[in-house]
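Following up on my earlier message about zinc ion. Here are the inputs again, as you asked, copied directly from the submission form:
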Amino acid sequence: MSFAVAPLGCNCSILRETATNETIVVDPGGDADRIIDLLTEKGCKVKYIVHTHAHFDHVLGTHEVASHCRNSGHASAVCMHPGDLPLYRILPQQCGWFGLPPVEAKEEISHRLEDDEVLSFGRFKMHVLHTPGHTPGSCSFSIAERGILFSGDTLFAGSIGRTDLPGGDYDQIIKSIKDRLMVLDDGTTVIPGHGEFTRIFDEKRTNPFL
Ligand SMILES: [Zn+2]
Ligand SMILES: [Zn+2]
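Thanks, got it. Here's what our run produced:
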């Protein structure tokens, strides 16, 4: 299940494997209480909290959600690509770029994501694709057996992520999308970091940046 969370409408997703209740949370960017309520309601055992990147609107709920998991007795790994750790550490400044009050990055990143790493939950496997360009450590997450891709702020429906913030690189984001995302199955559903879902096929056909 995916839903937009404050303050910038980041798409947060909760993926639960029903046989084991093992769960992955993607981008708890805010509204931690709502995320926690959903996790509690479904009896989720959160194995991984993963971040597509370290922009503040994708990490603001991380500490509260991770604390909830700890208090529930689940050893949840908090995951990010090391390329984005410098951005994560300047979370208070990032908030300032958008005129928001500063928030410290309180939660320790306990698991550094690697390109091509596989995170398993129940019978499913989530494949980590390092797709730099929006930020140096931006990652996309693919669950091939379900035909789903979480593209973070790398690929949007009809657009791509901005590359004018610190660490952004236009040529790199285009290369990441073409080499790593456009090679996925055409029917793959793309759940971006913001906005409407799309499909690889539709982006190949109509995305003006590709
Ligand atoms: Zn971003
Ligand atoms: Zn974002």
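One observation from looking it over: Residues 8, 10, 55, 57-58, 153, 193-194 surround zinc ion (ligand 2) (CB under 6 Å). Hope that helps, and feel free to reply on this thread.
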